């Protein structure tokens, strides 16, 4: 088996990272330098869900699994990329919009929603992304899917500034089934080969609700 191509699906993490409203802004501060100490080392400060990251069930459920307790097979697997690009701001992606492309979904498959919204990353419009309907999420979970990724900040509609927002049906459905969500992906349009192998393994932060991932899609040849 050979990996012949790897697509980087993660945004860089640093002060420029566009964070969800209210989340801490990441920073990296040198605590040792080559000149003074003989090596470089930095202090990292960031939220558990800054940049490209995974949500654990604990994010929405007190009794839900924490990120360090989850089996790694949730984060690695063959991906089904569903193209929902070209949609209007804040439009709902319903089962009828994706069912024709979702024929290959099932247990062990990773569903990647390609909205194209990563091109708005860094701008306010990034939060006006299309979102998956609760009904579509329920259909995917019923088919056995436990891992859903999106190239947007949120698979649910992000509340408009100053509003309480909705009831987070995608988060509740997927995390409630013991699944995980991968948010803030980039580069899904660069997956131009069949049968990509997806990997987005989280840092094993003890007891955390989520953790940063280095997400990638691999072309694998036998
Ligand atoms: Zn999240």
TrEMBL record:
<dbReference type="InterPro" id="IPR007325">
    <property type="entry name" value="KFase/CYL"/>
</dbReference>
<dbReference type="GO" id="GO:0019441">
    <property type="term" value="P:L-tryptophan catabolic process to kynurenine"/>
</dbReference>
<dbReference type="InterPro" id="IPR037175">
    <property type="entry name" value="KFase_sf"/>
</dbReference>
<protein>
    <submittedName>
        <fullName>Kynurenine formamidase</fullName>
    </submittedName>
</protein>
<dbReference type="GO" id="GO:0004061">
    <property type="term" value="F:arylformamidase activity"/>
</dbReference>
<dbReference type="Pfam" id="PF04199">
    <property type="entry name" value="Cyclase"/>
</dbReference>
